[in-house]
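Note to self: keep these together.
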Amino acid sequence: MPRKAAGRSGPNSGSGNQHQSDEDIQRERVWLNAFKAADGFLETQSIGLWIAAGIWFIFYSDAAPRMPSLHYGASEPTLVLASCAMLCSGLSGSAPKGTWPSWRLLWHVGWCVVFGCLSVAFGTAHFVGRGGVPVAMGYPGLGMTAFCAVAAVGAFITFPGFGNKAPCGCSAIFGRIMVKLDGIFGLLLARSIMSEGEWKQPYGAVTLATLVLPLGMWSLAMFLCTTEAELLAVVPVATLLHLAAAGKSMYLADHPEVILSVGIALLHACLYLPFPLSNPKSNPFFKALSNFATRWHKLITNPVSGFGDEGD
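Structure:
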């Protein structure tokens, strides 16, 4: 009873506090929806990048020039676009309820710039080409131009603002070092392509842009990610990239590149070993793998509801 009297000390005090509380709830709801929309854009962008990778492989891979680089196996636009698709899909669910690290905000804006440049590159090649003569790109070229333009606008309008709640970093030191080395490798690879690539030949500018810009975004994400959820999302992507690069290098009969890529992929796989032996559950990678195996074991061994015994 005394508490009620104190709470109603003035005629409008109770309604004012309630009104303020409603405003706070509304602001938080808008804030959460903004980050939810940004994560949804990344998930949708992942699907678009998968489609773009398929379009490049079907319509452009034979005509695109081979760009000189530090690693020919990894210098494949289809592989880079597919890796970015997996990366965006993984990161879209790694920071729920607005717990984005600060670098994700600038990285999100970076996609607006990247897709804008890619739209210009595809559009210029289709309508202008080299020496005023358009390159025969057809409907795939128009589709890629439109997709990149829409994605650039989408990245801009879904930017959630700078009101993020910065999460804590991950204590998995070896995992953080591994992905930072992946980021450095990607940046060096992008630099070698950009400095040595022949952009004046047919499809040269488009190939250069499709390689360097998404690869740069992939490398920055690898270098800057720090939280446990981010590391768990990006390490499988990096492992698959190195394995695919090893396959491409094997096709090109470049054995040193095959050995390098397979070795790096194995180092990534070692993160999932049960270390330290005294407390393997403290290793987030082993813990995630163990939980994944447990879920699959339950899915296989437990009967699905509605498909039990015939007498039920």
